[in-house]
């Protein structure tokens, strides 16, 4: 098998892996198997998959460096855009299905509930990253400015984790586990920057 075919297969596998939770959720919704509170389950599942993919996106660079596989970096954009799609579907389900597009009620929720405030902040910061993900936009901004803009991800992912932590009422372990993973990944970036400054 030549390299191009192998790369196409890997790319297809990444797409399928990112799409699978959505297909699974859609099938469960279609079969009315989302449990006693389907709207809450849908919102939560879309949110948690959005967060997981954001974290996978954050892990790609360290993995590529540690495994000495620079080609992995190419998957960052796909994973990031899928994360944006999940978080957008999460927001849309909340605004449309939970709040019936009552934007006044959504706004009051943003002001009143800190976890919604933080979730919204994360989403607003994510929009420019998704909007500048095309090759044309990268060229227009210039690689330096584009890279700087993408530093926003270091605020977005922790905001997503705190959003999760604040909304959990009983078992805080899951958001704490995500928080620990994000802490390690961000720590790796800081260590790498320090290494680069010294060399
Ligand atoms: C980057 C942005 C965001 C991420 C990563 C994210 C992630 C999450 C996660 C992980 C959960 C909990 C899932 C679980 O319990 O298993 C959640 C729940 C939730 N999120 Fe988000 N979220 C984001 C943005 C937003 C926004 C913008 C809103 C609304 C304005 C929102 C509203 C909610 C609501 C209403 C819940 C469910 C709360 C409940 O059931 O009590 N999220 N989100």
Structure characterization notes:
The protein has 199 residues and is mostly helical. It has helices spanning 3-30, 38-66, 75-98, 103-112, 114-131, 135-141, 143-149, 153-167, 173-198. The protein has one domain. It is built from 9 helices and no strands.
Which structural class is indicated by helix and strand composition? mainly alpha
Q: Compute the CA-based radius of gyration.
A: 18 Å
Distance between the termini: 40 Å
Beta content comes to under 5%
SSE string, helices as H and strands as E:
HHHHHHHHH
Mean pLDDT: 96
The helix content, as a percent range, equals: over 70%
Helix count equals 9
Overall 3D geometry?
globular
**Number of structural units classed as domains:** 1
The total strand number stands at 0
Bound molecules: protoporphyrin IX containing FE
* Biggest sheet details: none
> Which consecutive residue ranges, at least 5 long each, have pLDDT under 50?
none
Strand-helix topology:
Layout: H1 3-30, H2 38-66, H3 75-98, H4 103-112, H5 114-131, H6 135-141, H7 143-149, H8 153-167, H9 173-198
What keywords describe this structure?
globular, binds protoporphyrin IX containing FE, 199 residues, mainly alpha
Short characterization:
The protein has 199 residues and is mostly helical. It has one domain (3-198).
């Amino acid at each position: 098998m030549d390299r191009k075919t192998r790369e196409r297969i890997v790319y297809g596998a990444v797409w399928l892996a990112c799409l699978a939770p959505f297909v699974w959720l859609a099938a469960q919704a279609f079969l009315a198997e989302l449990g006693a509170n389907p709207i809450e389950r849908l919102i939560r599942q879309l949110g948690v998959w959005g967060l997981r993919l954001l974290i996978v996106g954050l892990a790609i660079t360290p993995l590529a460096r540690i495994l000495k596989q620079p080609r992995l970096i190419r998957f960052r954009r796909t994973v990031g855009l899928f994360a944006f799609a999940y978080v957008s579907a999460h927001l849309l389900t909340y605004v449309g299905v939970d709040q019936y597009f009552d934007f006044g009620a959504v706004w009051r929720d943003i002001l009143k509930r800190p976890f919604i405030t933080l979730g919204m902040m994360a989403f607003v910061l994510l929009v420019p990253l998704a909007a500048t993900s095309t090759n044309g936009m990268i060229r227009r901004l210039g690689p330096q400015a584009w890279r700087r803009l993408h530093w926003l991800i270091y605020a977005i992912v922790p905001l997503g984790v705190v959003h999760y932590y604040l909304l959990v009422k009983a078992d805080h372990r899951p958001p704490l586990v995500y928080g620990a993973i994000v802490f390690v990944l961000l720590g790796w970036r800081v260590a790498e920057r320090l290494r680069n400054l010294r060399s």
